[in-house]
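I have been asked to look over a protein record a colleague put together. This is what I was given:
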Amino acid sequence: MAWYNRSSRFISDALRRYNSKIVVAKNPIQESVSRTNPHTFSSSPNLSGSRISKFSQPIFRNSALLNQLKQSQWNNPFLDGAKRFYYVDGNRVKHFKPRGYKRWTQNPRNLFIAVLIGSGAVLTLYFGNLETVPYTKRTHFVLLSRALEKQLGESQFKQLKEEFKGKILPPLHPESIRIQKISQDIIEALQKGLMKEQVWSDISYSPESVPLPYEPHEHETMNALANKMADEDKWQSEDKWHKEEEILNDQWVQQSRKKGEEKGMKSQTGHLEGLNWEVILVNQPVINAFCLPGGKIVVFTGLLKHFRADAEIATIIGHEVSHAVARHTAETISKNLWLTIFQLVLYQFFMNDIVNLMANLFLRLPFSRRMEMEADYIGVLLMASAGYDPRVAPQVYEKLGRVAGDSSMQDYLATHPSGQKRAKLLAQAKVMDEALSIYREVQAGHGAVGFL
């Protein structure tokens, strides 16, 4: 029994010595509190949890200590990473932040700044590229630069000469000489109408031509000239122009002219300076002619089979040159750019076929028909200034409509108005009176300048 008591005492002494060597880590908060006020907090192991809470409450009400603890937590790099994923609202409720890039549109201030800058850029781009068309004083938006427009015209003209290689009539062909003479008259009339100094060289026939496999005999050339003179005498002797009833769908011309005169708007003609005008006659049965940007005129022999008089050819060439004067090619490219962007937006809400149909029917085709009317107006003034009777023009367009086969729906579904409608528009008193006045001045030997 004595041995058992000694053994139990030995074991209890060993456990007591072992426990005395163990160092218990103190709580840093308790340690700091004990150093601050040792009389209000005891580290005795016999104190219960309720007593610790009771004695520690006055200590944690110390605002300086709370600020120090918060500051230590904010500077902790391990706690900052976790705080990025939530935020606290006005009710002190924590919400998790959505991961990834935050959309800038969610901020009204950023959205307002973006809209303001974008609107300013669009307005600057728009008003900085507005130009005034000669005569009609219509303001149109042209994004294409003059140099690029000229470069495009010359490049396309070069491609056409390669395409029609072997079919271009030589410069000394009678019809080539005739077309070159009429074109020269129209260009000189354009120079007078713009009151420009001599900045263009005389119109030349393009050298890229080859002789035809046959040359016309002398009597054939004389017969052609005799027929041409007879046609001209017929047009000048017969007064086929009449003042038709008023057509209301061209009132935009007079309204645009009046508005331009009131504002003192000046026509932009810088794209016409320094042009090297050229003309070619292509031996193709195509009833067509056009003028590319940069002063490149192309006429097909198929047109000459139906229009033999010089006044008729001058009407068509004057119309095509007017497209270059008004920069219709550059305007079409600019409009198509904006219309394409508008269509891409509508594709998100409507079917593609419906969007394309509406865009062509209500935007592209009306713009094209208006530009054709504008070229008719400027062209009839050019031919009158060149010494050709403007009363021929309405008959030419009416005849062109019959040859091309006009339809009743052409005024709505085609890029060009019908020949009958164009004839009625040109036969109105206002524009025809101006053209006749210019024509009489030229016939009297006085000439007219600045009419554009």
